Write a sequence for this structure.
């Protein structure tokens, strides 16, 4: 599980020095790089004044393939799975459709309005809008 702050720190690091090696793992030799090693990351997060916006690339996934829930108080769980249906040959060398699984957990900060989280899948991309909670339970203390 990652926290929103860890994801934002990673995004800031990638954007400020995209070719810099990672301090904890060291540079990855070019011949061992796979997937999103260059170009766009499979996710992005933005913090705005009243909300967090998260984008996850999920190629081939549709609304019915994606499940999202909150557990353990503040853990956002995102799970997607596309399985071949009857009649589709997943053993073809170049199947027409993609199949696979995606699962991640994201620890949300305490200032989140969980009841108003919104998610949408559009063109293989999951967009999540997480509103920040407003703290209206202010208690003024009389100073004597």
């Amino acid at each position: 599980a990652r926290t929103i702050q860890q994801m934002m720190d990673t995004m800031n690091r990638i954007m400020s020095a995209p070719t810099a090696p990672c301090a904890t793992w060291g540079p990855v030799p070019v011949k061992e790089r796979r997937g999103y090693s260059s170009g766009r990351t499979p996710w992005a997060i933005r913090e705005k004044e009243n909300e967090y916006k998260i984008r996850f690339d999920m190629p081939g996934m549709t609304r019915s393939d994606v499940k999202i829930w909150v557990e353990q108080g503040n853990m956002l769980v995102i799970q997607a799975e596309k399985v071949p249906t009857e009649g589709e040959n997943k053993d073809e060398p170049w199947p027409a459709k993609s199949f696979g699984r995606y699962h991640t957990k994201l620890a949300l900060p305490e200032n989140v309005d969980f009841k108003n989280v919104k998610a949408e899948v559009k063109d293989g991309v999951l967009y999540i809008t997480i509103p920040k909670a407003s703290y209206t339970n202010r208690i003024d203390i009389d100073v004597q």
In short: The helical segments are 4-16.
